[in-house]
Amino acid sequence: MTVAVVQPGGLAEESRALKRALKRVERRRRLRAIGLIGPLFLFLAVVFALPIVLMLHRAVDNPEVVTHLPRTTEAIQGWEGDGTPGEPAFAALGQDLNEAFYARRLAEPARRLNYEITGFRSMIMATSRKLPRGEAPESWKRTFLDIDPAWSEPRYWQAIKDTAQPYTLHYLLAALDLRMTSDGGVVAAPKEQAIYRGLFGRTLWMAFVITAASLLMGYPLAYLMVNGGKATRGVLLIFVLLPFWTSLLVRTSAWVVLLQQEGLVNQALQWIGAIDDPVQLIYNRFGVYVGMVHILLPFMVMPIYAVMRGVPASHVQAAASLGATPFTAFRRVYLPQTVSGVGAGCLLVFILSVGFYITPALLGSPRDQMVSYFIAYYTNQTLNWGMASALGVILLAAILLLYAVFSRMLGLGRPRLA
């Protein structure tokens, strides 16, 4: 009988080969997983993360004056802010205005300076058209003052100096009804110009009311869908999902028809004798609430419905067998198990409602517009993308803060003991 003898060195070599093979298999598995989820991460980075980063950058970006008035930017830094700048600053501005005028790039810095002082754009454009071309004048300062005596006022030069920086806090401060003084301090904007803090407060309050109304209507509806018969569940599910098959604009326009003074709702109220004359149900806060709750209700119902389906009916039955009343069993056994669905639905509805634009614009009055209306206004009409980005950044920060507080209150994301 022959016995094979395995050398210790051979076992070690086989062990190392096995480890290398396992590492190759693990590496291929990891690469395969990355290949599967890589496109998803790339999609999220392009359509979600990148726009947020660009918005954050645009809220503090301030390139107009630095780029198009470079000589003035350098010359104005030596001015202390007292009186009118000297001849070098006027000469630099004259050369920059002439160059930008010929290159047709004067509109950008003029528009940016107009954000600081109303009417500054017209002053710059009118001055640039009257400046001498070709040979420089003997005194640029005298030339500017002859064209428009307002160039002797320090506030215009202070505005140029304040904007002659590549980055600025002007937009973010303005979005909070604050402004920066010439000495670098921060003060509150005049009361007649302070609109944005009230706007954010109105937006968050309206979102809270819409979320509360959706919860009061959505929770019983989800409960009925789960505990009703199959026929009831099917019909209610169709009614909940039906709005998703209709355009948002069509649904909002339908409420315009229903809620107007000669609409179906007013006619029905008059027919049953509830009112004598038509009441104003549209172009006010009530119309906005009705339209937005109707649109956002499915986003409240579906998360609650999904969680309720996972709650065993035996839990409530066990509580009843131990002597608990139906209300006590619901409050102490059933409701705590649906908190996660309530939290998810409330967060979803709240976040969606703070960004609504079409429904408040069509169903509300000018006093019922939300932050999204002003973001669209600055983006599409005045082309003040810095201000639009700043409003978006403040709104994003408020939502993240409220999300953190809400999640901590409800314990979302924390593991629950069985």
**Number of separate structural domains:** 3
Backbone shape: flat
Count helical runs.
20
- Unreliable spans are none
User: What is the topology, as strand order, of the major beta sheet?
Assistant: 1-2
Total beta-strand segments: 2
Under CATH, the topology of the largest domain can be stated as MetI-like fold
Order of helices and strands: HHHHHHHHHEEHHHHHHHHHHH
What does the radius of gyration come to?
Answer: 33 Å
Helical residue percent band? 55-70%
Structure notes:
Keywords: Cell membrane, Membrane, Transmembrane, Transmembrane helix, Transport. This is ABC transporter permease. The chain crosses the membrane at residues 33-56, 204-224, 236-258, 286-307, 341-363, 383-406. By secondary structure, the protein is mainly alpha-helical. The chain has three domains: 16-57; 64-168, no CATH class; 196-410, Orthogonal Bundle (MetI-like fold). Helices cover 70% and strands 1% of the residues. It contains 20 helices and two strands. It has a two-stranded antiparallel ribbon with strand order 1-2. A hairpin with a 5-residue loop joins strand 1 and strand 2 (186-188). Helix 10 crosses helix 14. The protein is flat, with a radius of gyration of 33 Å. The mean pLDDT is 87.
